[in-house]
Amino acid sequence: MQSNSKKLNAKDFATDQAVRWCPGCGDYAILNSVKKVLATLGKRKEDVVFISGIGCSSRFPYYVDTYGMHSIHGRAVAIATGTKIQNPELSVWAITGDGDGLAIGGNHFIHAIRRNININVLIFNNEIYGLTKGQYSPTSKLGQRTKTSPTGTIEQPFNPAMLALGAGASFFARTTASDPKHLQETLLRAEAHCGTSVVEIYQNCVIFNDEAFEEFLGKENREDHTVLLEQGKPLVFGKGLDKAVQWENHELFVSTEVDSAVIHDERNLTLSFLLARMETVKPLGVYRCVQEPEYASGMSTTETKSRKQVSELLHSGSTWKID
Amino acid sequence: MKTALEHIIILFSGDSGDGMQLTGTQFSDTSARMGNDIATFPDYPSEIRAPSGSVYGVSGFQVHIGAKEIFTPGDQPDVLVAMNPAALKVKLPLLKKGATIILNDDAFDRSGFKKAGYTETSIEDIEELRNFKLIHAPITSQTERALETIDLDNKSKRRCKNFYALGLCYFIFSRDPDLTKEWIREKFKDQETLVKANIAALEAGYHFGETIEAAIAIYQIPEAPLEKGTYRQINGNTGIAWGLMQAAEASGLNLFVGSYPITPATDILQELSKREAFAVQTFQAEDEIAAICAAIGASFSGALAATTTSGPGLALKSEALNLAVMLELPLVVINVQRGGPSTGLPTKTEQADLLQVFYGRNGESPLIVLAASRPGDTFAMAFEAARLSLEHMTPVVLLSDGFIANGSEPWRIPDLTEGYRHISTNMTQTPKEGFRPYNRNLQLVRPWAIPGTEAMQHRIGGLEKDFDTGDVSYDPENHEKMVEVRAKKVSLVSSNIPQQLVEGKAQGQLLVISWGGTYGAVRTAVKQLQEQGYEISLAHLTYLNPFPENLGQLITNFRQVIIPELNKGQLLRIINAQFHCRAKGYHKVQGQPFTISELIAAFRKELKLMDYAKQ
Hints:
The complex is a heterodimer of chains A (about 325) and B (about 625). With about 325 residues, chain A is of the alpha/beta class.
C-alpha cells in the first residue's frame, strides 16, 4: 500500500522472515547494502525482482520485500532472463554464488552475458561450497584443502572477471562485502548500466573458508594490495599513495612511479583483461562498462492491443471450402 | 478410361536430396484441395545428406488419399515411386502384392545398383519385381531434355526431376497440376528461371503420362464426403504452435516460448518465431534447461509460457519442471516424442515417454498430462493444455509424437468464437494487506500476482512452504499436507474436462484403450471389426492425468481391456494400477506406426480367446 505514496528507506525493504545466515557471514553486509541501494534509487517494491539459485547466497530473496524467487541450482540467470524479457520494465537481479553461478550455472552465466540482457548478476564469491559444508568450488585456489580435496585441489580456478570479459561482458565490477560503501557505489553503477551487469562480490565464509581474502582485504594488507578503479583516474594506491599500476610491453606491473600510472578507462577491453589478470594486487571497482546493444532492443514486441488475430492466420494461405 | 478408386496409398521415395518430402507434400496438398481426405507420413533419415544413392539416405513420403474418410497414412502402399535403386530396395518389402512401381530408369545404372548394394545390374534381373506392375520412366534424362533451352547448369536442371515425377503422378491419378504451378510461382517469386524450369519439368512429366496412357492404368479418386466448412492442410507441429497462440489471445496474455532445437519438435519453435505480430516472444536458449527456466521466469512475470521439446530434452528439463510444480505457476510443456532411450531414433515415432512424464521427477510431483491424437486435433489440444494450466496454476505436459508432428491432414478450420474465445486466468490485481501467495480457492488453485502489481510482492521458491502463509516450512505434518494438496489440486481437474467418449457400445466384450498418434490405425481397426459384428469398442484417451471421471466405470463395463501402445506397456501399467484391472497390452517399438492389419489381428485374437473362454 505504502509503496507509491512515500519514498522508502532501507528498512522498508525488510521482510518478516528471520535472516538465517551464520553470524559474521558476509551476506549480511550485502543484504543491507542492496536494501540501501534500492532506497537510494527510489525503487518501488513491486518493480523489483530478485531471483536466486541454490546455496547460502540464494536465500537472499526471502529477506527483501520485493518480488522474488528462490529457484533451483544454477538456474537463476536463466529464469531471470525470462522474467526480464516478459516485462522489460522490471528491475531484475539474479543472486548467485561461485558454485551456483560458475559451476552448475556456468552455461547460463556466459550466455546471459553474450546476450547482454539488462539484468544485474551478483556473484557472492566465497571460494567454497558453504551450504553443503565445505567442498571446493570453481573459484577455490589451486591447492586449497577442502573436504573434497583433502590433499589440495588439482584444478585451476575460474577467474570470474576473465570469464565474464571473455564472454563479452558490457559491465563487470568487483567489490567486497567488507566495504559496504564501495559495494553500494558499485551496485548503483550496475543498476544504472543497460545490459548484463556482472558484479563479483568477495564475501567471506566464516565457517568453511574464513579469511580467504585476508591477503589483500585484511586490515593490514588492504591498502597495499588493492587498487580502486575510477574512470579517468590514475591507478595509484598504497598506504602513502606511493604505488602505481604501470603499463609496459602489453603487461601491467606495480611500480613506485606514480606519475606514469595507468589512467583507468572502462572502455578499454585490453586494460580490463590485464586488470583481471592481476594477482598480488586486486583491482576493485568497475573493470568494464560500455554501452552495447541490449537484448530487448533487438526484440520485436507487439502491443497487446494491436496484436494480430489468430483467426486471420488460420484463414491465410491455401484454404478451400467444402459446401 | 479412368478407373475410380475409393482410396489409394502412394509412397514417394528417393535419395534424401531428391526432394521427395516436397513432392509428397505437393501431391497431398493438391489432393486435399481437390476434395479428398488424406493422411501423410514422412519417413526420412536423421542424416541430412547420407552418402548419395545409399540405402541409409532413402527418404520416403507416404500419402493416403481417399473418396472416404481417411484416418491413417495406410499400411501397404499401392504405388511406389522409386527415384533410385536404393529407394526400391528399401521400400519394396513394404508394398502390397501386385502394386505399381514407377521407376526412374536413368538412376538404375551400374553405379546406382552398386551403391544400393544390389548384386543385380539390371532391373530385369531383380527376381522380386516379377509380381509388380512396372512403369518405366526416364525421369532424369527427360527432365534434362525438357529444360534444354533454360539457362541453368546441369546440376540444377537435374534437381528439378522431382517435379517431373510429380507431373507423371498427377497424370496417372488425374490431379490438377495448376495448384502446384501456382505454388512454384509463389515459392520462387523472384527467380524467374527456377519458376520456368520447375514448371517445365512438371509439364514434361505430365505429358509423358499422356504419351504412355495406352499402356498404363489411369485412376481418379472422387471427392470425399467431408463435413462442410473451410479447410486447410495442417501438420501436428503447426497445429500446436497455433493452438498456443490462440490460447494466448483468449487469455489476453503474451505467449512466451523458451525452447532449444530438437528433432522432431523444432518446427514449433520455428513457426512461432515468425509470429511476433501475434504477441509471441520466442527465446532460443543455450540449452533445454535454460529454455524451460526462461519460460518459468516469464510465467512468473505474467506470460502464457511454454517450452517445446522431445524426450531427451524433457529429461533435462525435469528438475525445472518440478520447480514449476512446486511454485504452482502455469507452464505448458510440449513433448514431441521420438524413439528412445537416449538419442534413440530421432526421426522415428514412439510413445515411450509416458512414464517419464508421470513419474520422472523427484518427490511426489503430479501434473496434468494430455495427448494429441492426430494432426487435426493438435490445435485444440494445445489450446486445452494452456487453458488447464492457466485455470489450475500448474504445469501441463502435452504429448505429441513424430507421427503427428510431421504428418498432415485436411483440417476444418474451427469457429474460434465457439470454445476458443476466452480463458480466465487466476491473475489477481486487487491489493490486499497481507497478500498470501498460496491462499487457495475451492479448486485449491492459488492466485497469480505478477511483478509490477502493487502491494502484492511476495517470494516463492522450491522449498516446501507453509499451507497458510506460504513461508518456507520444514514442519513434517505441513509437508504431508502440502503433498496431498498438490495432488488433490491436479485430481480436481477431472471436473473441468469432458467425459470419456466411447466409439461403439458403452459395454460389451472387448474395450480397446489407446492414446496419442495411434488413433487413426486403432480406430480403423476397431471400426472394421465392429462392421464384422464383433463386440468391440474404443476409448481413445486425450486426458491422461487426471483421467476422465467415467473411465473407471467404463472399464468395468467390458469383459476385457486391451491397450495397444508404441512402447512396452506404459499406459497399461498406469491403468492396471489405478483401476485394479487386468488389461492386456499390445506393443510395438520399431520406430514405425501400427498397421491396421496387425491391430485387427491382435484384437481378433483377443476376441477369439474370450470366445473360447466362454465355451
